């Protein structure tokens, strides 16, 4: 039986990441089901369920962290979609990515921007 | 004569980073004055002066980027002070740093948290 | 009241990290007590309490990860002590650090080696 | 004529990395043959041929280092295969990757896990 | 109307990066046109237009930085082409990449080498 | 008896890094003497002894790599001194560091610049 943390986490994951997050969880079942549980319980049941910052603020932080980390294009795809899911606008997401240029340079920012571009084109039919 | 970008950047830098930022700019004058100008003109005159995100949101993004980047404790010190300068609360700064755990792990988050702890103790006389 | 995960994690943390880990947990109480709980519950109660690798193997993995991450000297200090606590020999720890040279280069390996050197001198009275 | 270090290294490389390593060496011949020699002589003839840790332990360290480094999916592919070649079990490799979550976060761990998943599916016909 | 920095930057970008750089700038127009302007104005109008190092030296520095950063294969593709555009020889580019092995390890150097290999094959019809 | 690679490497290390490099090698003797040998034999006897780039070019590459890597201030100290030893001017070193801003952002560049500043003050009695 799943813990209360798991149930709270899954609810939060569905609210934030939607089908993109669900797909990650599902793709881990045959290889590392406990890792999937940790994503749900710890990342979403514990961290994402905290008060103190709202979901829009948390997605700004997530996008900045993933952009700066580098090599996280699959996770950026999930979390740029998540940012839109919780109500951030296209241009706010681009602003958050661009704001990282002075801290992490153009290459990581360009990589994140092109992930956003692809998502905006799919979701909106256009990119503005 | 300094450009309009420089003047706008210096005004923004003083508003955001205050004396901590001024100290960085000043310490560069004998070694790399043009680098100081780029910080002022590009990071503050261009990027920080943009619309689309307010200064609180920009500081959340900055703190997430610096925490994730690692090895940026001097810059975190300037920008955690900056976060307080633009109106973020102690607990919101800690939330932003903690929100990076799932993305970048505990070590970078602990390093950033201890920078914040030192600043809060100096500025507030306490840490809550 | 602390959860079962917390109690299991604290027991494991004391076994592995000893007083070094306790000091980190304690230093977080005034600034980010929930972060301390996550270290105990998630890193130690969940991950370190898993089967499949024994504690010596886990410390080899931890040391390789922290060496490669860079900028984690405080955490290396805790975990090189932990490696000794769980029964790894000085020379095995050095081997694990040196094995990272082909993957992450000399600088990060030198930084980790000098952390180990300091610890071995304190604990053993010598470094061989 | 190849040096003793080269011969020892090539033997070790074949034992550890097998055809995956051979393919990397071979693909470097037209562009950077000396780089191929350094991989063989230094990484395998020197480092991998050392005593102090056995090959299973060295592969745990390698996988932790590559997972944490990020952006090393091609090298992870070679070295997860190598881990299986030297006798580590699927579940031990997954444990080593998962053990890095507290140190480097979920994204790098997920990226490494999906490399492992692909390899396990090809080699084993299944992933457990 | 574009600023003098923009015009100087675009001239420098065309001289250095050629069509590869132009393509990046162009692909940003629908998603983040100001980011494109910053690349042109700041990276090329300011930094690349400086004296003190010639363009060959600047490309050696760029290639070392991108190789070490990791996860910057698209940017390496632009800048290895740029290195050839400003007169560096194939073997000098490979030397610069290989020189990074002691500092950043084999994986990032191999990733950069394979980007170079692809470019040399396309541009030269061969790789030596 | 030391190999030819070791002797060539030590000669090159003394020429490039001088007493700063010697101090690193010496400090490793009690803790990891083989690691010291690898620095001498591989980094200096193999890589630094190659043709194709001269020592000034190699130091530009080294400085760019260490600046971008981050958390390598001790190694930057050795290699900025080395850059001066092989004939680079103060301002060329600063240019190389500044050239990394677009690729790795201001924080790593500022950290490297302050290492250079300290060295220039000690060696030159001034910083210009």
UniProtKB/TrEMBL annotation, chains A, B, C, D, E, F:
<feature type="domain" description="Carboxymuconolactone decarboxylase-like">
    <location>
        <begin position="33"/>
        <end position="117"/>
    </location>
</feature>
<dbReference type="InterPro" id="IPR003779">
    <property type="entry name" value="CMD-like"/>
</dbReference>
<protein>
    <submittedName>
        <fullName>Carboxymuconolactone decarboxylase</fullName>
    </submittedName>
</protein>
<dbReference type="InterPro" id="IPR029032">
    <property type="entry name" value="AhpD-like"/>
</dbReference>
<dbReference type="Pfam" id="PF02627">
    <property type="entry name" value="CMD"/>
</dbReference>
<dbReference type="InterPro" id="IPR052512">
    <property type="entry name" value="4CMD/NDH-1_regulator"/>
</dbReference>
């Amino acid at each position: 039986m799943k813990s209360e943390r798991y149930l709270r986490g899954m609810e939060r994951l569905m609210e934030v990441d939607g089908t993109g997050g669900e797909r990650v969880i599902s793709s881990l079942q045959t290889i590392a089901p406990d890792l999937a549980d940790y994503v749900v319980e710890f990342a979403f049941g514990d961290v994402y369920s905290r008060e103190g910052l709202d979901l829009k603020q948390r997605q700004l932080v997530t996008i900045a962290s993933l952009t700066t980390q580098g090599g996280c294009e699959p996770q950026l795809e999930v979390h740029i979609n998540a940012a839109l899911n919780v109500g951030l606008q296209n241009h706010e997401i681009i602003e958050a990515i661009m704001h990282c240029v002075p801290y992490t340079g153009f290459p990581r920012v360009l990589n994140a921007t092109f992930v956003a571009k692809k998502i905006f084109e799919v979701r909106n039919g256009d990119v503005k």
